[in-house]
C-alpha cells in the first residue's frame, strides 16, 4: 500500500510558492551597493570638476575687466 503525499507534507512547499533565498537577496544588495558607489564616485568627480571650471571662468572674467 502506497500513501500519496500531499503538497503540505513537502517542507519546501509548506509555506506556499517559493520566494527569494537569502543568498539571492544578499547578492542583489551587493550589486546595488556597487552600482551606487560607482555612480556616487562619478557624480562627486563631476561636481569637483564643475567647481574648478567655474573658478577658472571667474578668474578669466576678472582679468578681462582689469
Structure notes:
The chain is mainly α and 66 residues long. It has one helix and no strands. It has one helix at residues 22-65. It is rod-shaped, with a radius of gyration of 29 Å. 0% of the residues are buried. The mean pLDDT is 82.
List the helices and strands and how they pair.
Elements: H1 22-65
Outline: rod-shaped
User: Helicity level, as a percent range?
Assistant: 55-70%
How confident overall, as mean pLDDT?
A: 82
Rg value: 29 Å
**Strand fraction:** under 5%
Order of helices and strands: H
Number of strands: 0
Low-confidence runs:
none
Q: What is the number of helical segments per DSSP (H or I, 4+ residues)?
A: 1
Roughly how many Å apart are the termini? Answer: 104 Å
Q: For the report, how would you describe the main beta sheet?
A: none
Quickly give the structural class.
mainly alpha
Features of the shown structure:
66 residues, mainly alpha, 1 helix, 0% strand
